[in-house]
Amino acid sequence: MGFHTKPNIFVSNVHLKVANLEQSLEFYKNVIGFQVLSKTANKADLTTDGKRALLTIEQIENATPKSPRTTGLYHYALLLPTRKDLGKVIQHFIDTRYPVQGASDHLVSEALYLADPDGNGIEIYSDRPKEVWQWQGEEVLMDTRPMDVEGVLKEAGGEKWTGLPAETVMGHIHLHVADTKETVNFYCEGLGFEVVCRYGGQAFFISTGKYHHHIGLNTWAGVGAPPAAEDSVGLRTFTLVLPDEESRGKTVEQLKAIGATVKEADGVITTKDPSKNRIVLQV
């Protein structure tokens, strides 16, 4: 879990717009295994340890379905502490007969894929030890292969699923973007990430501290795809944690130097990437 602490820059929270708060809460509590940290009439913060809000869901007025050809969320990814925990999640889905969209071996990690009631993509994964990751120069070797589901299930040893472990973190976020060149420049020159893996010219994976990725960027929704409508379900914001105030100040200057917009209101600093994905910069 050291890739999600200082001095790295990492995603700590994802804020989603949903059509029906109570329906989403039922899903996130009973299917995914979150606990409610706080709740209002139209918004809830979800946690695994009773302290940190990893996910925020907000019901919006007159919500419209998510368009498949727009920028925004591809998926957010919950990183479990161990492979054993992933096995317990798989057994939970088997027991409840909840459908998943995929189960993959990415060499650096093993991952399950599914969606919430609004179609927001979710990955639940565990990392392989960093010592077995293979690097070719500055890039880590990643792939998409079938998961050894039986092997992962065996790790669980028949133990009962009781929800997400307290040590679960927001492992990464993967975004649909309109243009990879401009977007990679924004995240690398502006925010300080490094490219650590490329899938042709359509997908880039970036990180700090040589993680396999804190953020994924792809043009699979189409080059030049427009941002989703404001009343569409999907991503509202995601939060990046920077090491300290000095780092945040430097980052703000870097963003301004490349022409990015930075706003501050009530002590909250935000920016938008070239595809209009909104980012909160936190210390």
Automatic annotation (TrEMBL):
Residue ranges of every copy of the VOC domain listed in the record: 10-127, 169-283
Top-level division of the source organism's lineage: Bacteria
Pfam families: Glyoxalase
Entry-linked InterPro entries: Glyas_Bleomycin-R_OHBP_Dase, Glyas_Fos-R_dOase_dom, VOC_core
The protein's name in its UniProt record: Glyoxalase
